[in-house]
From TrEMBL:
InterPro entries: Cof, HAD-like_sf, HAD-SF_hydro_IIB, HAD_sf. Pfam families: Hydrolase_3. It comes from Paenibacillus glycanilyticus. SUPFAM superfamilies: HAD-like (SSF56784). It comes from the Bacteria. This is Sugar phosphate phosphatase. PROSITE patterns: COF_1 (PS01228). PANTHER family: HAD SUPERFAMILY HYDROLASE-LIKE, TYPE 3, PHOSPHOSERINE PHOSPHATASE.
Length: 265
């Protein structure tokens, strides 16, 4: 059976993993089969690198990963930054002020570091599910240089309100919903689609030979760039509308079924 795509881009949370952050044996076997057939597998995620490495290890993969929604592209073998889109600390000041005033939890990220002002048990539990161990800067601390992403976390209702208010701001940065409980802020040019395009160009891969699978709004740019973009069955309607195909959900091994149906024939 011939491989139909040379590059397979996979979102992690809500796509590759189940809602309880598990990689099923059926999905792992399908991804491994695609890699063994010669496809380049690139994980494209809102996660930081240190939160992606355990998933890579479970898949027995190495190579390039696209992290922070395209904010930083990393070589997982050397742990070096291939490319990143930096945010100036002063650009984030209105977002920090808003979070402090409204008691919304946030973290700031360089390519490899995550920092918070404080940690509650609820927030610590959330981070542990993503293999994240942020350092605590302390209340009122100034932001460091080299930032690539600012993320807020809270209930869906709180995030809905924050999103509605931030969309009215005249900011030079972009905000994007990366999950029901998360909103990310990053450089206006940073996206999974743009980072995927850079990777494809550097490796001489035509977009028609790219298969991308994702489930949320931060995946739309890569679904639209790829020759075939597949939205998971658990995706919001807006994501499904942007895709070429709608597959099964992450609770139904959607990645495994998509790969076996579309990646080779």
């Amino acid at each position: 059976m011939a491989l139909q795509y040379d590059l397979i881009a996979l979102d992690v949370d809500g796509t590759l993993l189940t809602d309880d952050h598990q990689l099923t044996s059926k999905t792992r076997e399908a991804v491994r089969e695609a890699a063994d057939r010669g496809a380049s597998i690139v994980l494209c995620t809102g996660r930081a690198p240190f939160s992606v490495f355990p998933v890579l290890e479970e898949l027995e993969l190495t190579g390039t990963i696209i992290t922070h929604n395209g904010g930083a592209t990393i070589d997982s073998d050397t742990r070096k930054i291939i490319h990143q889109y930096e945010i100036a600390p002063q650009q984030l000041e209105p977002f920090v002020d808003y979070c402090r005033k409204n008691q919304v939890h946030y973290d700031v990220n360089t390519a490899f570091e995550m920092m918070v002002e404080s940690l509650t048990p609820e927030v610590s539990d959330m981070y542990s599910k993503f293999h994240a161990s942020p350092s605590v800067l302390g209340q009122g601390a100034s932001l460091p240089q080299g930032l690539v992403k600012f993320t807020v976390f809270g209930s869906k209702e709180v995030m809905d309100r924050v999103q509605e208010e931030w969309e009215k701001w005249p900011s030079s940065l972009q905000t994007i919903r990366s999950g029901d409980f998360f909103i990310d802020v990053h450089h206006p040019e940073a996206s999974k689609g743009r980072a995927l395009r850079q990777f494809a160009l550097s490796h001489g891969i035509d977009r028609s030979r790219i298969l991308a699978i994702g489930n949320y709004y931060n995946d739309i740019s890569m679904l639209e760039f790829a020759g075939c973009g597949i939205a998971m069955g658990n995706s919001p309607d807006g994501v499904k509308e942007a895709a070429d195909v709608v597959g099964r959900s992450n609770a139904e091994d959607g990645v495994a079924y998509a790969l076996r149906e579309f990646a080779w024939s």
